[in-house]
């Protein structure tokens, strides 16, 4: 019997602009397309996903806190909050759920202020630099991690 796999997918500030601005940095795929492809992969993996994007830190934290009552894991692209938000990290840690952090770009090839993540130290792992595929790879890693912890 496979482990339950209900995943909260969180997209941080400005990711609603994906596919519409700065295509040279973030590509031409929209957030809806990323969510649709993730939902398809989730189905194959036996997971259910709920996706949420907000430009507001408090709204993201509220959703993360709620996940404690229903989710088995969190897949998150914290976007700019990766590098600034202790509160987001605290909320993720407080759920005690496995977290996988993803980034479209390779944050280590970019400006030095992007090299530090407040989230990475409480995450199971990080996928960074594969464009929209980072989300799919992150979901697969989260599924494996849930299976491994149940053994
Ligand atoms: O590479 C990633 O996924 C990032 O999390 C994206 C963040 C950035 O601050 C992180 O350092 C790395 C930025 C998200 C902004 O997304 C935009 C999309 C289209 C146009 C403008 C911004």
Structural write-up:
The chain contains five helices and five strands. It has helices at 23-26, 31-45, 57-67, 86-95, 133-150; strands at 6-11, 48-53, 73-77, 99-103, 125-128. The chain has a five-stranded parallel sheet, with helices on both faces. The longest helix is centred in the last third of the chain and has 18 residues, at 133-150. The termini are close together. The mean pLDDT is 96. Bound molecules: ligand CA2. Residues 14-15, 17-18, 21-22, 26, 77, 79-80, 82, 103-105, 107, 114 line the site of ligand CA2. Ligand CA2 binds next to loops.
Could you say which small molecules are bound to this protein?
ligand CA2
Can you identify the CATH class?
Alpha Beta
Average pLDDT level: 96
Which percent range fits the helix content? 25-40%
Rg to the nearest angstrom?
A: 14 Å
The CATH architecture would be: 3-Layer(aba) Sandwich
Output the strand order for the largest sheet: 2-1-3-4-5
Number of helices: 5
| Superfamily (CATH H level) name | Dehydroquinase, class II
What is the first-to-last residue Cα distance? 11 Å
Q: What name does the CATH topology carry?
A: Rossmann fold
The domain count comes to: 1
Question: Which spans have pLDDT < 50 for at least 5 consecutive residues?
Answer: none
Secondary-structure-based class equals alpha/beta
The main pleated sheet reads as:
5 strands, parallel
């Amino acid at each position: 019997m496979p482990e339950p796999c209900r995943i909260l997918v969180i997209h941080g500030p400005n990711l609603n602009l994906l596919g519409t601005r700065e295509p040279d940095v973030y590509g031409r795929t929209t957030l809806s397309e990323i969510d649709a492809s993730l939902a398809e992969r989730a189905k194959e993996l036996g997971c259910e996903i709920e996706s949420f994007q907000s430009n507001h830190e408090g709204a993201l934290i509220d959703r993360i806190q709620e996940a404690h009552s229903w989710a088995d894991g969190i897949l998150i692209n914290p976007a700019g909050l990766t590098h600034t938000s202790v509160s987001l990290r605290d909320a993720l840690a407080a759920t005690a759920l496995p977290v996988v952090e993803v980034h479209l770009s390779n944050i280590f090839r970019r400006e030095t202020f992007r090299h530090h993540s407040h989230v990475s130290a409480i995450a199971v792992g990080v996928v960074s630099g594969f464009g929209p595929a980072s989300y799919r790879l992150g979901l697969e890693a989260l599924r494996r991690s849930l299976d491994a912890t149940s053994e």
